[in-house]
Design brief:
163 residues; mainly alpha; 6 helices; elongated; binds fe (ii) ion
């Protein structure tokens, strides 16, 4: 993957990685539990980095809709709940697990699709590239810091959901 610090590209790369992990979680030939662990850490670190480093900075732009940013945060909460529902199923690959996985895929795909069309297009149209790269640096740093704390562990996701 090309090295970039553009926050728009960095967010898109994570979204594509999430889609790859969905494919692995659906495959009986894959280590589905490992794919879920990686997905959970990535999802939580990604969303927290967006909420702390990217969304607040974009709120300062007049032509980027604040309601879209608030809505994005609500969808992060819905994503965390759907993730927790899957993490709480005991048997990986069971019928219940498959069902919760599809609910998670639906919630996350809806969010990433909407985020790309509203928030990221807003950034593309209104934020200069040097600022996009600055935000990308801040996003990466925060994301890396969060990833070290196993943010996708069930206990942590439970804490996020109930806060
Ligand atoms: Fe995102
Ligand atoms: Fe997001």
């Amino acid at each position: 993957m090309a090295e970039t610090r553009d926050v728009v590209e960095l967010i898109l790369q994570d979204h594509r990685r999430m889609e790859d992990l969905f494919h692995r979680m659906r495959s009986v030939e894959a280590d589905r539990a490992a794919a879920l662990r990686e997905f959970a850490d990535l999802l939580v670190a990604h969303a927290l980095a967006e909420e702390t480093k990217v969304y607040p900075a974009l709120k300062r732009y007049e032509n980027i809709d604040d309601d879209e940013l608030d809505h994005g945060e609500e969808e992060h909460e819905e994503g965390n709940q759907a993730l927790l529902d899957l993490l709480e199923v005991d048997e990986v690959g069971s019928a219940e697990w498959d069902e919760k996985l599809e609910e998670l895929v639906k919630a996350i795909t809806h969010h990433t699709d909407e985020e790309e069309r509203t928030i990221l297009n807003g950034a593309r149209e209104n934020v200069a590239m040097d600022r996009r790269e600055e935000l990308g640096g801040a996003f990466l740093e925060e994301r890396a810091r969060r990833l070290k704390e196993s943010p996708g562990a069930a206990d942590n996701v439970r804490r996020l959901v109930s806060s």
